[in-house]
Amino acid sequence: MGDKTPGTGRRDRGLLETVVLWFDERMGLSNQLLRPAPRYSINPFYWLGALAVVAFVIQGVTGSIMLLYYVPSPTLAYASTLYIFQNVSYGQFLQTVHLYTAYAMIMLAFMHMMRGYFVSVHQKPREIMWITGMLMGFVTLGFGFTGYLLPWTVVSKSATDVGIGMIDVLPPPLPKMITFLVVGTGGDAAELLRFFDLHVVVLPAVLLVLLGVKMYMMETHGISEPVTGGTPDPKGGGRTIPFFPDVSFYLLELAALFGAAMLLVSVVFPLTLPPEYTPAAAGQYVAQPDWYFLWIYQILKISYFEQAGGPGRAELCHASLCGPGAPAIH
Amino acid sequence: MALVLLPFIDRGKTKRIAKRPLYTTLGMIFTAEVVVLAVWGHMTPGAPITNLEALLVLGGTALLMSLISFSAYTLLPARAGRSGAQQSAPSVEPASTGVHAASAWTSAVFVGVLAAGALSIGGSINSIVVMGVAGISAPEVGTLAVSLAGLSLSVLVATLLLYRLDFGRGRIKRRVRAFEVGWRE
């Protein structure tokens, strides 16, 4: 790259490649982060984590726009959410994309984990990468947990209260510590403010740090070898393909497909905003956590775990109003 | 916690799924349990769960997944043997990734078919029980029809797959061929 002579190669380059190479020569991108990738990695299953990052970026963009209008206070949270819904251009669409992409991010993180499990990416030397990824998974769930409360609807508040009840099954002193951290002692206002801070400041920062650590380790160890016995790729050779344009365009295609799918689903199935939370309104519903916590919640409802000191159904269900005839909310 | 500490629990050296039956089966059970629990929770909001129900549903799911895994590992023994032979006596020719991919796809489809068949059986039984208790209704008849159609399709695809897999010995193929020839005559 550095020994190019005038008139050689330049004539074949397009504008985009020239610009990229200009930056590459000065920043050494292709030598570090953007090094060649093995051929076998051109497969969507190798990029589930990357798609989760794409989802995180979409969340960042849509969330930042909503931040312009949202007010984290029990009296104004629902009104500001409704304002975005009804008065901001494409506000309903924005919120729908934010919700569905959050679901996609959680699902992609789970698929990424299980795919890694089945193909043994946790084996030496990637043990710490695995643990870092697990921590990122917990942070992703934390995003879902904290973000769900923010609209302050009867669904979100009740589901969050159920989720907070689930913290009690952790061994002491964790329940008191975590409950204090996420709820505080100031009632609804403190709870909402803390959830808001966690959702828009703390968790994104933690996730970005963990992502940086994981990417650094991925650059160190390279992409995991396939289970079919492929050769681990060295930093060059015929079994690799350049990051630009091959891998980068492939990733762009995947990201575009994913983004298009999210937009399409959001258009076809637009979100409807449930009523505002009030204790009376909450009494009309059977509270349930959102789908990604439902499996843990279901385990905690088993008689054995209730009798073993776990939170009883009355504690798991908001305001002890889990009537059999009440409709479920999710 | 077990998942977080997995690298220190699973100390195996091989990545091959064919040589990791225990952890592959455990992973299948975990994934299935998560899905079953979530769907179950969605269908029974607020309802308590007795120990017997939990044992039947969770134990049944684990048993089903174990059976599927056992079937897959039993039906596809050639792959592990072939890779073992390659390690002991390296061949001059490179391993054919096409054969591996075909085996993997066949295995995946077979597992999917078994799962679909199990779901269809469960759906059929559920519809029959519901109609027996609450009377015949159009939605339940529809569910039953879909379940039976799914079951038929699963049996058909499973038969085709078994024919293709042939257990590595050609017995089924020969029998079917003989049957076909005899039928034509």
Could you characterize the architecture of this molecule?
The complex is a heterodimer of chains A (330) and B (185). Chain A is an all-alpha fold and 330 residues long. Chain A has a domain at 39-224 and 242-277: Cytochrome Bc1 Complex, Chain C. In chain A, 61% of the residues lie in helices and 2% in strands. Chain A has a two-stranded antiparallel ribbon with strand order 1-2. In chain A, strands 3-4 form a two-stranded parallel sheet. The termini of chain A are far apart. Chain B is mainly α and 185 residues long. Chain B has two domains: 1-75, no CATH class; 94-185. In chain B, 78% of the residues lie in helices and 0% in strands. Chain B has seven helices and no strands. The radius of gyration of chain B is 21 Å and the shape is flat. Chain B starts with 5 loop residues before the first helix and ends with a helix. Chains A and B meet through α4, α5, β3, α11 and α12 of A and α1, α2 and α5 of B.
Which structural class fits the helix and strand makeup of chain A? Answer: mainly alpha
Calculate the mean pLDDT score of chain B and round it.
Answer: 76
The total strand number of chain B stands at 0
- Please give the share of residues in helix of chain B: over 70%
Order of helices and strands of chain A: HEHHHHHHHEHHEHHHE
Q: Biggest sheet of chain A: strands side by side, in what order?
A: 1-2
Fraction of residues in β-strands of chain A: under 5%
Beta-strand segment tally of chain A = 4
Structural class of chain B: mainly alpha
Q: Indicate the percent of residues in helices of chain A.
A: 55-70%
What percentage of amino acids of chain B are in beta strands? Answer: under 5%
